[in-house]
Design goal:
Helix content: 25-40%
Strand content: 15-25%
Strand order of the largest sheet: 1-2-3-4-6-5
Largest sheet: 6 strands, mixed
Structural class: alpha+beta
Number of helices: 6
């Protein structure tokens, strides 16, 4: 996950955005309605992909108020940290992990929506998410400062 924020996002580690990366157990394994999935390469035991889900809706700021109101914490499952190492991309890992997250959200029974946002500057990210969900807000069309694209996915898909 840290490789992704340094190499794909270009931001490096920012504590207020990436604290869950430093302590993933507290963020995704301890809370009952959260989860973290990890794909391991059987050849060498290396982590090659991750995907997480939690019950926190998008905060305003930095996200638009309309998005935060549409996806409140507690009833929204937010997909986070879908990261695949470059040498393992385009093999269906992210799609499989996201499918498992959606099944987890559906099985929980308390989530009314599944939300995520992505940076369209990351190669392949926007097209991938468009293939799985629907855009609910594109900041590039609304003068958003970060140009983030916000999506809703269908639980259990």
């Amino acid at each position: 996950m840290l490789d992704t924020v340094y190499h794909d996002f270009g931001t490096g580690y920012v504590p207020r955005w990436h604290g869950d990366i430093i302590d993933p157990a507290a963020a995704y394994l301890v809370p009952e309605r959260h989860t973290l999935l990890v794909a391991i390469d059987p050849a060498d035991g290396a982590v090659v992909a991750t995907a997480a889900l939690d019950s926190r809706g998008p905060a305003c700021p930095p996200n638009p108020r309309s998005v935060a109101e549409r996806f409140p914490s507690g009833t929204t499952a937010q997909v986070r940290r879908v990261c695949v190492r470059p040498g393992h991309r385009r093999r269906g890992l992210a799609r499989r992990l996201v499918g498992e997250l959606l099944r987890f959200a559906a099985a929980d029974g308390g989530y009314r929506a599944v939300y995520l946002h992505t940076d369209p500057a990351v190669p392949g990210a926007e097209a991938f998410w468009r293939s799985l969900g629907k855009v609910v807000h594109d900041e590039r069309e609304h003068g958003g400062a970060h140009g983030v694209v916000h999506f809703e996915l269908e639980p259990g898909r």
